[in-house]
Write a structure and sequence with these properties.
Shape of chain A: globular
CATH architecture of chain A: 7 Propeller
Number of helices of chain B: 6
Structural class of chain B: mainly beta
Strand content of chain B: over 45%
Largest interface: A-B, 76 and 96 residues
Number of helices of chain A: 4
Pfam families (chain A): WD40
Number of strands of chain B: 89
CATH superfamily of chain A: YVTN repeat-like/Quinoprotein amine dehydrogenase
Largest sheet of chain A: 5 strands, antiparallel
Keywords (chain A): DNA damage, DNA repair, Repeat, WD repeat
Distance between the termini of chain B: 21 Å
Radius of gyration of chain A: 23 Å
Structural class of chain A: mainly beta
Mean pLDDT of chain B: 92
Protein name (chain A): WD40 repeat
Strand content of chain A: 35-45%
Strand order of the largest sheet of chain B: 84-85-86-1-89
Distance between the termini of chain A: 6 Å
Organism (chain A): Dillenia turbinata
Shape of chain B: globular
InterPro entries (chain A): Rad28/ERCC8/Ckn1/ATCSA-1, WD40/YVTN_repeat-like_dom_sf, WD40_PAC1, WD40_repeat_CS, WD40_repeat_dom_sf, WD40_rpt
CATH class of chain A: Mainly Beta
Strand order of the largest sheet of chain A: 24-25-26-27-31
Mean pLDDT of chain A: 83
Oligomer: heterodimer
Low-confidence stretches of chain B: none
Chain lengths: ~450, ~1100
Amino acid sequence: MSMWKKIGDRETGRLCTNRFANYVRSSRVSSLSLSNYKDIVSAHRGSVNSLQVDLTEGRYLLSGASDASAAVYDIQQATDFEGSGLVAKHRPLFVVDKRHEHGHKYAVSSAIWYPIDTGVFITGSYDHFINVWDTNTTQVAVNFKMPGKVYRTAMSSLSMSHMLIAAGTEDVQVRLCDIASGAFAHTLSGHRDGVMTVEWSTSSEWVLMTGGCDGAIRFWDIRRAGCYRVLDQSQSQLGRRPPLLQRATVNKASTSKSSSAGQSSSMKTRTPQRKIANGNVSKQFPISRLPAQAKGSMRQRLHPGLLSSQDRATAHYGAVTGLKVTEDGMYLLSAGSDSRLRLWDVESGFNTLVNFETVRLQTSKMIQLATTQDSSLVFVPCMTAVKAFDVWSGKTSLIFRGHYENVNCCWFSSQDQELYTGGNDRQILVWSPSKSFVEEGKDTRKGQVHSVDEDNWSD
Amino acid sequence: MSIWNYVVTAHKPTNVTHSCVGNFTSPQELNLIIAKCTRIEMHLLTPQGLQPMLDVPIYGRIATLELFRPHGEAQDFLFIATERYKFCVLQWDAETSEPITRAMGDVSDRIGRPTDNGQIGIIDPDCRLIGLHLYDGLFKVIPFDNKGQLKEAFNIRLEELQVLDIKFLYGCSKPTIVVLYKDNKDARHVKTYEVALKDKDFVEGPWAQNNLDNGAELLIPVPPPLCGVIIIGEETIVYCSANAFKAIPIRPSITRAYGQVDADGSRYLLGDHSGLLHLLVITHEKDKVTGLKIELLGETSIASTISYLDNAFVYIGSSYGDSQLIKLNLQPDSKGSYVEVLERYVNLGPIVDFCVVDLERQGQGQVVTCSGAYKDGSLRIVRNGIGINEQASVELQGIKGMWSLRSSTDDAYDTFLVVSFISETRILAMNIEDELEETEIEGFCSQAQTLFCHDAVNNQLVQVTSSSVRLVSSTSRELRDEWHAPSGYSVNVATANATQVLLATGGGHLVYLEIGDGRLTEVKHAQLEHDISCLDINPIGENPNYGQLAAVGMWTDISVRIFSLPDLILLTKEQLGGEIIPRSVLLCAFEGISYLLCALGDGHLLNFLLDLGTGELTDRKKVSLGTQPITLRTFSSKSTTHVFAASDRPTVIYSSNKKLLYSNVNLKKVSHMCPFNTSAFPDSLAIAKEGELTIGTIDDIQKLHIRSIPLGEHARRICHQEQSRTFAICSVKYNPSNADDSEMHFVRLLDDQTFDFISTSLLDTFEFGCSVLSCSFSDDSNVYYCVGTAYVLPEENEPTKGRILVFVVEEGKLLLIAEKETKGAVYSLNAFNGKLLAAINQKIQLYKWMLRDDGSRELQSECGHHGHILAFYVQTRGDFIVVGDLMKSISLLIYKHEEGAIEERARDYNANWMSAVEILDDDIYLGAEHNFNLFTVRKNSEGATDEERGRLEVVGEYHLGEFVNRFRHGSLVMRLPDSDVGQIPTVIFGTVNGVIGIIASLPQEQYTFFEKLQANLRKVIKGVGGLSHEQWRSFNNEKKTVDAKNFLDGDLIESFLDLNRNRMDDISKVMGVSVEELCKRVEELTRLH
């Protein structure tokens, strides 16, 4: 339906604002194509490995690349214009590379913003170091020496009480580096191989998810020792709620499941500020039907007594190369060197068995996935293309072809509905909703979007 | 600087979103409870109708309103949940007649995505739990314990992602919900789940039904004995239960609301999107459902909620039109309708656009709104003022003057009404049946026009005609004495009080008479150099029967003079200036201060402070009340003195806090007025207007008066043009009889007095009117209406074509002068430097008005600016352009004359989805965004870096709780330069819920004072249900929640005046300011609206 009609419905209150916004967002996403009005002038002379737009203003894009450099771009305000003013060029505001006195020596694998403000950013490198930079002075404020190549770093966007960088490295242990103290706060042991990817929960500031080269995805509550869940690709939620007739028998075996304390509502008023989820997820029992266990013991703490068979469960055959939690905190997407993409229910830990039409994924390198705000689409680097899959059906919605070589990372800006992708061709490409003055402007580049399933998006 | 803003509601929300019926206030009383988004109204059902009991604000937007009865209770409790995830349970306290809070809490979650389809809140019919669907994929359960207390809530995973409706089923041994949902492929199904409270999980329920009607959106649970659920679709209605499935086809319609008629659930009222009311009947044999029947009852407002009250009385709550109380008759009327509308409750919502017009140039705006939607669309004229409640009226042409007289000096009431005509005088009196009847006073001269009449001492009456002054006994009605004008002279003007008469004859003769018992004595005579135009000797000194001063208005030298009485010595002469003669003078005292009011022939009024001893006039002030001569008269209402200024724009002048205030009377032209206080109509006024004599009383308070102009179509944009005295609207007419929702789009011209359509321009097929503007261009003296349109093609997501149409109004017709095609929808039009500035999709485009060789005119594009997602809302000031974007907040552009280019100057980088913008002053811009917040940003011209200058700094944030569709500068009250509030700039806003509000930019000192008062009031005035005011007003969107800053809640502050004395004292102590001072300062603010 047309925008003007939607605006009319919003004016009269017939269309609630939330739905209006989702409609606009999804219709914009469905028109994403290689931007003909916005260019990022890449500062990198190596593969772009990591991309992130800051979470506070949605204004500054941070990139990290294999030439040991990291750069920041203003994606809202162009540096200059080309093409009779129609194409905005965004040149880096600054670059830190090998020439910098505290610059990394080898490839930057991960570059992330401090979630609370843009005054600080963090880079992780194959030179075994994690650097914490002061954005304004471009000096290193703190650094951490890691036991091996750093694959991925992550900070919790929810955290009000800790300043921990979770780091996945060549080492089997996941380390939490505390910016406040400059020291390691924890080491999390459980993986049997290097850890390619780490991801904080979007519903609890204490919960961390890690994906290892051992094919395991582990969930940790950092307030407690050990991992409390290992995802098992064979554990699905089919038949989770048996039909009424079978209930009697199943009831004896008990399908009891406790809900996490983080979801319960208090009967008192809370502060109006951001909710601090006290998600004591550890209470949760990950596997629903264990005939041997009696009801009373269901709520016992699982770890460290996690059964060894569970502890050996795998999420992918081969390495887990990418993790992404949906914004609502309910689902986890994982990519593996088995070229599979899986969707997991975070609360139960079940594999939802959505069959994503992936063909081939990069196997040797960590890949950075992105999702839209409403979690309806996931953007996945698939060799030289980026594909957008429908999260619920697994069907391919859009294909973004533009990079000449493999794509490593993508970032979706939910504020502008723009997709940023970085690849081995050293380019950072912007994919934006089409603008109607396209006919007037000049056709720009090689890129092309292939829309496979448009019907999903017309409303 | 307009940083410090005060937000207050002038017209409360009227959009009825929810309603329910139950025994809330007592087990025997039946109540109707209505939610108007942020307010709750409680009514009692009485044989006389609905009796209002309570109307309270809720600190939240109400998402759910449900009555329920916990076990062991004799009456119902009220459950309310708000959109910001607060809930409360209220119980009526009969002793204080107030609701008390039984429970309250927060049901927000960190996890989950807020539902698209609206929040759902339901209560198990057996009161075992409350169920809430607030986030996709989660069903929240608040269980009750055995004592009816709420226990800790928990979530259950709901796999169905696109939930459309959830209801509890009746008659299930365990609480069971039925879920209507949409799958990945958009097919709709229902499914049932049992809630296992112990396990905190669902168990698959007794039945499910797949592949329903594609428009199915509403579930109606059927109570025992039938049980099951009715599923309302767009083309079918289905009854479904574990063992029955019945379906009937219906005429395609979207059902918005239902109301259950019988306790056994066999009949339901259904209200659809076109306002048709149907009765759905479940036919059954005992407990077995045999089928469904549907019958059309008639038409109502488009219902958002239906509550069956009792005895065929039904309340229809509406979001798009007036809410109604209807009666369902057993027999259809002549049109075949069973619906009889008994009462209508005004609803201004949704206000999609409005304009502020000051038709009389008085500084007081009246708001003309585009209200309602679809067939219930209307224009509403909202104005502040004093209303007259008409009691009686008679047709009488040519009234030249009116006076009321008593039948004896001691009588408390008036008896006679003397009405003067050009060549006769008639006397009306109240008879025993309380009817006005013509009578006679024998001593009066009835064959001449009366110039003045008054009660005199000693049971006498005095009448002045052009030839004589007659003194008449009020008891015997006989003439007692007469004073004759000297021959050759006739009396031109006269005035009198109980003991004195002052009159003027031609040639500047001023004659002063005193009234004795049966005697008129000429005491003094004075000869002035010019003719006299008006006189007054109203006693304002200590003696209420004897005046010490006389005010005299003069022809020729245009002056007003004060003479002493009885010696007629000139004390003061005040030149009025200008060429307009004084037409009425009045000596009066308000709150112990003496004034001289002097009204001119052109509708202006001068007021002076008068020194009673010296006759000195000081502190001259001038205001415009109308355009025609004014006649001033005092009257009293509630034992205080007011002045009525009769003219083409009748006004009441009164005083508050020792300031003169002016309030419009909601009447058209009034030629004469006199107080007429009779036993049948106490405290009434007799008003002569347009061939009619009306007796009425005045409202005691200033309030908004609303006139409704039903259109039968939906007006979306409105604009006024002063020169042609017309309004132009863009409107849509829906044709519901046609299945493929065909629409017609118009630009219509309306007369600004009668509001009749006087000319119409039909737009093309698929062409919508998006914006309308009245403007003129450089080098062209004509005034035009410019209309921006969009071609909304079904296959296009965003319009790629539109037009700008330029019309001129000639002889009441819209004449198309020029048109310009655009590459998108013209969302906004502004007059800009003698040019036309249009917002077209992403672009801001400036057009010049060019004269072609053949003498015709055309719009020619000059320059533009890209860089918006969609530029919806545009305001301009000088060379500055403020743009409100679809989703990228506010940006500031500047037009550079030399380069002929538009450039971006600064931007707010927050991701606000805008719904309206306005420029408060050069540096401060006001925005409304779609999560119901207001915010202000400041231009930072003094920033040190480009980056700082390029950023609009957020200086104010506030949660209004209303969706604002439009801001306009203006005021609903008369803004006089001499009053304090006259200096405070105000912006009016209109919202979806029908709220008209005011944003006033206060001086900092005043703001700080009221901020402190607000903080103290928060402690004293507790929100209903324990909801927090501070949290309610905190700015809140998807990304952040922060405390309100630089905005004050005027509704809370003004509620200070409703507090009892003790609580006022408490606040006074904390504030260190006397209660009187506090009241005075708050009252001043109330005068802003």
